[in-house]
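Run log // design_07
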C-alpha cells in the first residue's frame, strides 16, 4: 500500500530529497531511476508528487512543470528575489542591483529591493539609493536587521512566496533571515569563501516560515556571470524608460547615441535618474562586448 501525496522539495542532498506536504508532514524521498533516464534533476522549490509506502519511505514520482529555475542557487518556482544592498558597510554596488533587476525581468520574478543597515548614519544614504529606483521597482524597503526597523513590512511582503536572496557579501542577507525567522544562520559576511577566494559549493535549502513562505539564503556571490540579457532586450527592461521610449525618433532606439532620443532628453531634464542611466549605458556596452567575444 502506497499513499500518493503532493508537496514541495525544500532540500536535496546526495539523492535524498526532503519534501514538505500541505498537511505539514515531511518525507525524505529517493528519486527513482526514471528521473535520471529523462535527464531531470529535482531541485528545491520543485512541486512534486510522491509515494509514501507503509514503512514511511517516500519516492519522488513526478516533478510538476517549473515556472522558472535559478541556477546558482538551484531553486525552482521562485516568486520573488530580495535584492539586498546596504546603506553603508559595504558601499552599495548598484550595478549589481541593476543586473539583478534584469535577471528578474528575464526570469519573470518580482524584484524587491531591500536597503539594509539603515541604523548606520543619518539614513540619507538609504534614501539616496531608494531615489534611484522609485520609478523602476514597486517594492523598495529600508530596513535594519540589527534594530528591527522595517522588518514587519518586509515580513508582510514575503508572506506566501518562494523567495531567493541576492546581493553582495556582508550586506546582511543571513542577518535579515535570522531576525525575520528567529534562526541562527552564520553571519559575518564572506564566511563561505575558501582561501582561494572561491565560494564553496553549497546545496540550496529552502527555509520555511509560517504562511507557506519559503526562503533560500544565498552566499554573497553574484548569481550572474554576465549581463543576463542581449543588448537589444535591455532598454525594454528599464521600466522608467517606458514613459518616454515611444517618443524616440527611431524604433529600436538604444537611447545611447541616437539623435532625438526622448529617454536621453528625460535624463537631461532630471526625469530619469542620471546615475542609473549612466550604469545602463555601461551595462549595454558590457552586453555588446560579451556578445562580441561569445564566438572567439
Ligand atoms: N549595523 C548593522 N550591521 C548589520 C546589519 N545587518 C547585518 N549586519 C552585520 O553585517 C555583517 C554581515 O552580515 P551577514 O548577514 O553575514 O551578510 P551576508 O549578506 O549574509 O553575507 P554573505 O553570506 O557573505 O553573502 C555582520 O557582521 C552583521 O552583524 C544591520 O542592519 N545593521
Ligand atoms: Mg550570508
Ligand atoms: Zn531613445
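design_07 sequence
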Amino acid at each position: 500500500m502506497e499513499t500518493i501525496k503532493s508537496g514541495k522539495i525544500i532540500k536535496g542532498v546526495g539523492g535524498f530529497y526532503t519534501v514538505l506536504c500541505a498537511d505539514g508532514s515531511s518525507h525524505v524521498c529517493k528519486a527513482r531511476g526514471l528521473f535520471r533516464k529523462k535527464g531531470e534533476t529535482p531541485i528545491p522549490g520543485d512541486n512534486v508528487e510522491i509515494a509514501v509506502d507503509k514503512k514511511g519511505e517516500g519516492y519522488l514520482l513526478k516533478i510538476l512543470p517549473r515556472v522558472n529555475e535559478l541556477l546558482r542557487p538551484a531553486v525552482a518556482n521562485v516568486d520573488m528575489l530580495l535584492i539586498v544592498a546596504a546603506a553603508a558597510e559595504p558601499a552599495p554596488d548598484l550595478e549589481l542591483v541593476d543586473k539583478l533587476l534584469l535577471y528578474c525581468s528575464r526570469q519573470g520574478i518580482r524584484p524587491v529591493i531591500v536597503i539594509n543597515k539603515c541604523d548606520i548614519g543619518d539614513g540619507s544614504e538609504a534614501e539616496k539609493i531608494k531615489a534611484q529606483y522609485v520609478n523602476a521597482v514597486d517594492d523598495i524597503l529600508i530596513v535594519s536587521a540589527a534594530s528591527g526597523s522595517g522588518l514587519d513590512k518586509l515580513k508582510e511582503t514575503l508572506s506566501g512566496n518562494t523567495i531567493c536572496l541576492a546581493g553582495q557579501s556582508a550586506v546582511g542577507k543571513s542577518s535579515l533571515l535570522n531576525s525575520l525567522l528567529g534562526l541562527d544562520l552564520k553571519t559575518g559576511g564572506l564566511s563561505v569563501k575558501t582561501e582561494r577566494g572561491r565560494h564553496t559549493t553549497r546545496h540550496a535549502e529552502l527555509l520555511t516560515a509560517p504562511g507557506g513562505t519559503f526562503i533560500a539564503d544565498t552566499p554573497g556571490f553574484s548569481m550572474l556571470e554576465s549581463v543576463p540579457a542581449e543588448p537589444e532586450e535591455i532598454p525594454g527592461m528599464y521600466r522608467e524608460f517606458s514613459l518616454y521610449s515611444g517618443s524616440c525618433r527611431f524604433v529600436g532606439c538604444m537611447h545611447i547615441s541616437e539623435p532625438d532620443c526622448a529617454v536621453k532628453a528625460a535624463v537631461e531634464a532630471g526625469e530619469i535618474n542620471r546615475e542609473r542611466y549612466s550604469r545602463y549605458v555601461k551595462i549595454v556596452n558590457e552586453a555588446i562586448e560579451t556578445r562580441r567575444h561569445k564566438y572567439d
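Residues 289 and 295 are 11 Å apart (CA to CA).
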